[in-house]
Write a structure and sequence with these properties.
Layout: H1 3-23, H2 42-46, H3 68-72, E1 76-82, E2 87-88, E3 96-107, E4 116-129, E5 133-138, E6 145-151, E7 154-168, E8 170-189, E9 192-212, H4 213-217, E10 223-226, E11 229-246, E12 251-252, E13 265-280, E14 283-299, E15 301-306, E16 314-319, H5 328-333, E17 341-350, E18 354-363, E19 366-377, H6 379-388, H7 392-400, E20 401-412, E21 415-427
Helix pairs in contact: 6-7
Length: 431
């Protein structure tokens, strides 16, 4: 490779340094591919990025734990979610974060004699666009530019996931995700430009266990909150575990081939859900629900720097095994440290219609950051109409369709990113 192309590689590393600045430092050993660290879900981001252990039917929900698809597929058949407009990462107009997702699911209980075994498939397309830039290039004999070039760097991935769930007194699910990852950068040298890209892949896997405590203790427990309005309380405890971004290091398509590590991530957490289901004219209706969830998370990379040359230190990487530095004190004490980040959230749901979320994350390279969001869905209103109308057509709509909207803000080092998404869902179809 010519000295000019070697010089051109500096642009790559300068651009990578730009990414480091744009993203908020997560871990001193992880400088690249940060876009695969962040969930595309406005709901999960509102929850302090705690998405491994609280069961969800969010189409983006499998990103931090593929086992969520096993939960989704127990009752949901099809769900599509997208951003109405790009999220401006860290409030910067030049940084456009766009995502869309689709989930498919089916419960095979009618084919398996009542056994609640289900399977779900999920797909996410995510793209972080860094904007359009213009640069000049020169001949070797003149300082006058001989041309200009425009380039549009971006990072993107396509995630394909499958999850399987079974509900037999307790609910258990497992899942796996495969991600195709692409970074497109244009690097410059004095006589022209070359396209520079890095291609790679990663594997995520996870498991999720939910125990319905009240149902196991007294499955027929209920009481009347008003005359002819029976109520059934519930208390669910969930445990989630996932390993993310396991895979080969993407390599850039120039010599010498530069290989950079993915942010391998381990998450272990739990969730508590408490609520009250009632019946209006013998039709089920969820009056309220409160969720608390917490995930302990670590980027599983050690970085070592060797000064092979005084001006060009070399960094090499190794990966940790097991749970890394995640300990029982992190999980039960909800305390982060230099290596472990604690993500936690409170979620309030009212009348199957309104959701408020408050989240925090601290530890690792985060310092007590916060997030919040709201959600609205059509399901509550549809179920109220269902309870007080006798229309079979309307009852069918209420039983099988839902529209949801979420808006959230995540704050990292006083730089805010706002997310919005719209979700259309179809559920409870049996064939």
């Amino acid at each position: 490779m010519s000295s000019f192309k070697r010089a051109g590689l500096l642009v790559l590393f300068l651009f990578s340094a730009l990414q480091i600045h744009l993203y908020a430092q997560l871990n001193q050993s992880v400088d690249f591919y940060r876009f695969v660290y962040y969930s595309p879900s406005p709901r999960i981001n509102a929850m302090g990025m705690a998405g491994a252990s609280l069961p969800t039917d969010d189409p983006y929900g499998f990103y931090y734990n593929p086992a969520q698809l096993g939960y989704f597929s127990q009752t949901n058949n099809l769900s599509y979610q997208l951003y109405p407009s790009s999220a401006k990462w860290e409030g910067q107009d030049v940084l456009n974060f766009r995502n869309s997702a689709i989930n498919l699911g089916y419960n095979f209980k009618n084919l398996l004699g009542g056994i609640n075994l289900s399977a779900g498939f999920g797909y996410i397309h995510s793209k972080l666009d860094y904007g359009t830039y213009t640069s000049e290039f020169y001949s070797d004999t003149s300082s006058t530019p001989i041309g200009t070039v425009k380039f549009n760097p971006y990072d993107e991935y396509d995630a394909y996931s499958i999850g399987v769930g079974i509900n037999y007194n307790v609910q258990f699910s497992i899942g796996v995700t495969y991600k195709n990852i692409l970074s497109e950068i244009l690097y410059l040298y004095p006589y022209g430009t070359d396209e520079l890209n890095a291609k790679g892949y990663s594997i995520d896997y996870g498991m999720l266990l939910t125990v319905p405590i009240v149902k196991l203790i007294e499955p027929k427990y209920k009481f009347d909150i008003m005359e002819n309005i029976p109520a059934v309380p519930y208390l669910n405890f969930s445990i989630g575990y996932s390993r993310l971004n396991q895979g080969a290091r993407p390599s850039f398509n120039v010599e010498p081939f530069v290989s950079l590590p993915l942010p391998r991530d381990t998450r272990l957490g739990y969730a508590l859900s408490v609520g009250l289901n009632i019946k209006l004219n013998d039709k089920p209706f969820k009056l309220f629900e409160y969720d608390f969830t917490a995930d302990a998370e670590e980027i599983m990379i050690n970085a070592y720097q060797v000064n092979v040359h005084s001006n060009f230190p070399y960094t090499y990487y190794t990966y940790k095994d097991g749970l890394g530095d995640i300990g029982i004190g992190n999980i039960l004490g909800l305390k982060g440290d230099d290596n472990v980040t604690i993500h936690k959230a409170h979620v309030f749901n009212l009348l199957e219609s309104f959701t408020a979320m408050i989240g925090r994350f601290d530890g690792g390279e985060f310092r007590n950051e916060e997030s919040n969001g709201i959600g609205m869905r059509l399901k509550g209103l549809l179920n109220l109409f269902k309870a007080y109308t006798g229309s079979e057509t309307f009852n069918f709509i209420a039983d099988h369709f839902d529209v949801q909207y979420y808006s959230s803000t995540i704050n990292i080092e006083n730089m805010k990113t706002k997310f919005e998404s719209v979700n259309l869902s179809f559920y409870n179809f049996e064939f």
